[in-house]
Amino acid sequence: MNTHPYIRAFLSGIFVPTLLLPLLLAGFVLLRLVLRAPFPIERGLIFPMALAPVLWGLWSMLWLRSHAQTGLPLGVHGAILPFLMLPGGTLIGRHVGILVLGARSVTWFEAVRIPYALIGCAFAFAVVAYYLAWKYIVGTLNRVLGIA
């Protein structure tokens, strides 16, 4: 089964975010419509929901392409992705006006202030979560699809 390995790599990469994003959407709908959150979450939700699976799929394809030269384990490769997503998301958020960077915190939707210390803790958690997801879930899918 050596036909179309990059398509199979893309499919194994999009598996995790495609399963998790509907749960995230349900949480945001609950927050916005049921709990009446006073800020427009939907402005900052649609673009990341469309972009995250594509990034994961392309990142998986990149691993397949570069693994022979780099020898980088899949979990480590996956843990690098948040280091690209955080600056990219911050740049896009500032450009569209949903993020304002302050001296000690980030203001989100002109309503919620998030201290940089909390962002740092969440980022560290994300790096570990990405490592585990890529090592165990995407790695298993790669083996099942015959590309690992």
Short note summarizing the structure:
The protein is mainly α. The chain has helices at residues 5-34, 46-70, 74-96, 116-144, and strands at residues 99-101, 105-108, 112-115.
Task: Describe the structure in your own words.
A 3-stranded antiparallel beta sheet has the order 1-2-3. The model has no long low-confidence stretch (mean pLDDT 89). It has one domain. It contains 4 helices and 3 strands. 72% of the residues lie in helices and 7% in strands. It is mainly alpha-helical.
**Helix/strand/pairing category:** mainly alpha
Percent of residues in β-strands: 5-15%
Evaluate the radius of gyration: 17 Å
- Poorly predicted tracts of residues: none
Question: What order do the helices and strands follow?
Answer: HHHEEEH
Number of domains: 1
Largest sheet: 3 strands, antiparallel
Classify the helix fraction into a percent range.
over 70%
The DSSP helix count reads: 4
- Shape category: elongated
Alpha carbon gap, first and last residue: 12 Å
